[in-house]
Design goal:
By secondary structure, the chain is of the alpha/beta class. It is built from 8 helices and 13 strands. The strands form 3 sheets. It has a 7-stranded mixed β-sheet with strand order 8-7-6-9-10-13-12, with helices on both faces. A 4-stranded antiparallel β-sheet has the order 2-3-4-11, with no helix packed on it. A two-stranded antiparallel ribbon has the order 1-5. The longest helix has 25 residues. The protein is globular, with a radius of gyration of 19 Å. The termini are far apart. It binds zinc ion (ZN). Zinc ion (ZN) binds next to loops.
Length: 298
């Protein structure tokens, strides 16, 4: 089944229209439409496959344990960057929450890399993961408790100091419901940290429908600081701050060049990624990906 919206799924306005058509470059080669709401400015993937149909649009290899081994140079670089990012994420959580230790929920924890780092640093951690294979891997190798999205309702209200979504919210079907649900799980001074691609970034505006972070139909929602402020307020959050995720722009630019079929795509992507990165130093809201720091309103 496909999910067709006649109204904006965020604000309910009828004022929605086609923004652009995008190809699924990663898996199916199918074309999907991205619609934009002229009231809240949210962009969403129109006629996306529903939860029962979407599994075939995910390349399962990325979740398999063997992809976790550093086999060649690129894999080793990727692994090193990932470790660097994990350490940055830990520091970020510590700084934003003002706590050295606490209770944290990683929503969409994948194979549990971030959860594992937080656990080692003394945090009490739980994970939520929809993919069974990844869930089992995370539980087995990271020794953390991993739950299905349905069991999130079983957590005690107000029991988490921090809830993180590292490039996860854009994949989630029940968008508003999920934000409302996590608000209840946060302690009164709890913080939600949500990392998302930014559709008004320099790289997005340059690559348009070749922009790799549209990633249809896996990405259902395409936000920027303006549209994300709207849904945050609607679901009872205040945006306390916005930060950049510095490495995404290189990866996204290289992948976008590949989508365009460019000659010397890797080099062009790295070069343009560097330009976009440098430009974004003068305007955070044009960064490829952003981290939103949310505080529940009471
Ligand atoms: Zn809207």
């Amino acid at each position: 089944m496909r999910i067709h919206y006649n109204k904006c799924p965020v604000c309910g306005s009828n004022d929605i229209a086609l923004y652009t058509d995008c190809k699924d470059f990663q898996v199916s080669g199918e074309v999907f439409s991205i619609f934009r709401c002229s009231v809240c400015l949210t962009e969403f993937t129109q006629d996306a496959p529903d939860e029962n149909e979407v599994a075939k649009y995910y390349v399962s290899e990325t979740y398999l344990p063997h992809s976790d081994k550093a086999k060649n140079f690129i894999a080793r670089v990727y692994y090193a960057v990932r470790q660097l990012m994990l350490r940055r994420k830990h520091r970020l959580v510590k700084r934003i929450t003002g706590k050295r230790r606490g209770r944290i929920l990683d929503y969409g924890c994948g194979m549990g890399h971030f959860a594992s780092v937080m656990k080692k640093k003394g945090w009490e951690i739980a994970g939520i993961e929809i993919n069974e294979e990844a869930r089992n891997y995370a539980a087995k190798y990271s020794g953390i408790e991993v739950f299905t999205p349905e069991s999130a309702g079983l957590f005690t209200k107000g029991s988490f100091d921090c809830i993180t979504f590292w490039h996860v919210l854009e994949h989630i079907y029940r968008l508003r419901e999920t934000l409302v649900k996590i608000k209840k799980l946060l302690s009164p001074d709890g913080i939600a940290i949500i990392a998302l691609p930014n559709n008004m970034s320099f790289d997005s505006l340059n690559y348009r429908n070749y922009w790799a972070a549209y990633d249809v139909p896996r990405h259902l929602w395409h936000f920027n600081p303006v549209s994300f402020s709207y849904i945050a307020a609607l679901t009872g959050f205040e945006i306390k701050g916005i930060k950049r995720l510095p490495f995404d722009v290189f990866y996204i630019s290289v992948l976008s060049e590949k989508n365009k079929g460019s000659v010397l795509g890797f080099l062009r992507g790295m070069f343009k990624g560097t330009i976009f990165y440098l430009l974004s130093l003068f305007d955070l809201t044009r960064s490829s990906s952003l981290i939103y720091i949310l505080k529940p309103l009471h």
